[in-house]
Amino acid sequence: MQFKFKIQEIAKANKSRLVLALDLPFQNPNSSQELISKADAILEQVYPYICAVKINNHLVLPLGLFDGIKALVDKIHTKGLLAIMDAKVNDIGNTNQIIADYYYTAGFDAIIANPFIGWEDGLRQLFEVSHRQGKGVILLTYMSHKGAVEGYGQTVIDSATGASVPQYLVFAQKNVAYKADGAVVGATIPEKIKAIHQVLGEEVPIYSPGVGAQGGSAEAAIKAGASYLIVGREIVSAENPAETARKFWDLTKLV
Ligand code: XMP
User: Fold this and answer.
1) Taking the complete model, does pTM exceed 0.85, yes or no?
2) pLDDT, tens digit, for every residue of 101-125?
3) Which atom number of ligand 1 is nearest to the Cα of residue 210?
């Protein structure tokens, strides 16, 4: 089954559109056992309220892919959830394929990549290695931080049509053409979610980070067309992560 349908099933079963960004703050890399215990504890508290976990360099760098992350991914799967690697893959095709091979061997179900690299000898290999194994590729389409306007927000000449268009709308069209499993669009700019959703329709679901800590609103992102919300610090750094996750779940739950 394709990743986008796998996550849809789990989201329906858990009535949840929440993807937990399991990002822990920097700490002494010699205390990796403490980091693992903290990550496990948060997962244990919030798993009933989420449909997937997104992992980033916050954990991969200090724990190592096969020394610590693989066991965490296994644990995510035993909770009935999927694991997304926020690798923002951004290299030539051969390198992308090897990056993906490692993450998929560690058990990840999907990977985030940067569409700026283009298709031939870039994204093609990543999509091929992913879709052959039922894994998902989720493409950055408009990032959540302010500086995103300089790249994703610039006006470009579409190489296919010669027309002047916003970069993010070109990427939205490419999401559909490439059969991407998801598009990342920041919750901080709901009007961009709306415009991108109009191009993606129901083909490519929108994953929206930037809720809470970065100032985005969960309800506004969903109203604009986001299917999933990626939430990190607001839950992970909360005094009571379970209670905070439950509140987000309640506010945004699938009915
Ligand atoms: P917070 O703590 O801000 O964490 O809720 C958000 C998580 O998502 C990552 N992030 C992004 N990832 N495209 C991405 O692929 C984006 O536009 C984007 N904005 C934030 C961030 O690194 C953290 O893991």
Assistant:
1) yes
2) 999 999 999 999 999 999 999 999 9
3) 3
